[in-house]
Structures
1.
Amino acid sequence: MEALVLGATGGIGGEVARLLVARGWRVKALHRSVRQGEGLEWITGDAMNRDDVVRAAQGVQLIVHAVNPPGYRNWGQLVLPMIDNTIAAARASGARILLPGTVYNYGPGVLPHIYEDAPQRPVTRKGAIRVEMERRLKDSGLPVLVVRAGDFFGPKAGNSWFAQGLVKPGKPVTVISNPSAPGVGHQWAYLPDVAETMVRLVELGDALPLFANYQMQGHWDADGMQMPAAIARAAGKPGLRAGAFPWWLTWVAAPFVPVFRELREMRYLWRQPVRMSNAWLLAVLGSEPHTPLDVAVSRTLQGLGCLPDQVSASPASPAMASAPVAAAIGTTRRGQ
């Protein structure tokens, strides 16, 4: 079996790509510059160039569309053309499209319990674009798999609330910032579990519906305090308490910095509980891959270079001067 991964240098794209290789797939990855390694066949090209994507997808049975614009910039100009290119490539190759879904599709009206068939009425521009992406995929008549999960964390999660909002990569954990309002539950997803879930579903092949849509339960933090507590335990500082995320910064800078404006629009996801049902997933797989929270958090902090024996070997990203500021500024790469 062969797959093409768009966004293989990103968190979920990279995790899925590596797992597919481990499962015996031949995996091609599209990137704008010459790369090598990780058992992938790197192809130079751009997800914004339809010819590049169609060429790279020749002979594949799966296209993983895990590519996003950097730092929330130019979503309106980039996101939909990229999904159209993926649709064209899948039509030419006969491949199934795998899309990592998001909770942005849902507005406050369906919270706190989001079921798989909940109406998608987003209240943000980014959410509206995500809904349009899925509409185009469904209308294409191609085999499509959408898997939604909570906020990502993991050793190689890249741009995430965990890595840019709660802790400071490359530094010992001395401060934990919590975006949640007191007592508000939040859903998290450990990236290796997400990738395992996606690949297990892909392996079902034609047993899946033409447009398959599943959600993961992941790690449910019932009061918004379990994740910060797990970070403190993994860091060997069980008494360390989380401070509040400086949401005021997103309001002050929103008129000037697009990322701040986007974060402010998504605040509703932290002000009330957000919990997705995984009933459809359980009906198909029987169980959901689930790494214990303390193990997942410890591995994540190790990957981020936040534990004492790894700090010197894992320099912090220069863009991450402080955890709250890094979360607001955002350092997402395009993932190509």
2.
Amino acid sequence: MKLRTMIWKELWQRPTPMLTSLMAVTFGVAALVAIQNITDSSEKKIASDMEALGANVLVLPPSVTLQDYYGADMHGKTMPEEYVSRLALARMPGVENLAPKLCVETSVDTIPVTLTGILPQSEFQAKAAWQGLGMITNPIGTDRGCCATTANINPDNDPNSLATNRTVQDLGDREVIVGRELAEQLQLQSGDKLDLYGEEFSVLTVLPSTGTIDDGRLFAHLHSVQDLSESGPVINVIEIIACCEDAAGSLITNLSAELPETKIITIAQVVDTQVSVNRLMGSLSWVFFSILLLVGAASIASVMYANVIERRKEIGTMMALGASRSFVTQMFLGKALILGCAGGVFGFVVGTVLAFVLGPQLLGISVQPIPQLLLVGLAAATTVSVAASIFPARKAAGLDPCLVFSE
């Protein structure tokens, strides 16, 4: 009888112990694949968010505990608008744009909305002392670098630039810009009218979808929001777009020195926590992988050894009929090789499916498969399976047919 036939016959005749070992190996590979997939996708999302965020430095009230960089203006704390003038007049190298914001909660047609006050570029340009300050120039999704040039400054005065450049050239006292999601909810289009604080506002434009918190917001002139909400000349946050090199260098120190009564946060500080979590997840995936594979190896070794003990007579008969020691060894190692390959493939599939399901649900990220993990899973699973079967295989090949028959 051929070796391959013997291996398959053994697997089919004793499926239960083989399935137990297969599941242990599969779970080990699945844990590695799932966690590595989620970690890799999370790292890519962070890189994409950093590119698309626009503002890479935030000036916040000192008492704010920042939980979400993208909702940094939703903490309810305020600081004087005068801080914007101080920063503008300081003319710090690397500062390309200042974007003060004030968020208040209101309602439109009984639907609660977040009204965000913003300062258009025209307000900066109207003040001679501020005119030396450049404006944001790097639309989301471009690769032109983070520093401003005059050729890139919103030449068409398009109000939709708020979705890409995070700035708008002109915004009237009674005009609003509506996020895409909110516009669909309120059924608003450009030119429509809506009521805010008893005042009639005109919709200047509906922003294209950005996939950020801005999709559910209303944007109006900062001073209009201050007047209508009776909050006074205050803001929640100053977003700063700075050249990457300066943001990573002395700019933070200079900002802290200029505004010591505020908290300065950089995107690097915020994502550092998530990067640390990703690294921890990556390390834990290998720990889980190692533990589960060791469990799988112990299970395979136990199953193989028990199989040798149970089949002493069969193995002795095979050897008496001419089966060589290498044939018996190859038969057991062949079973282990098949278990390892099956565990590697099944583990990759199960882990990838888990990542697809858990990634969006737990972290809100879309997960892409990593084909290289299939090779890692196969190599590790087969190596562990074969290594765990070497001693039982040698034990089987070392049986003496005469002693077996005498028993």
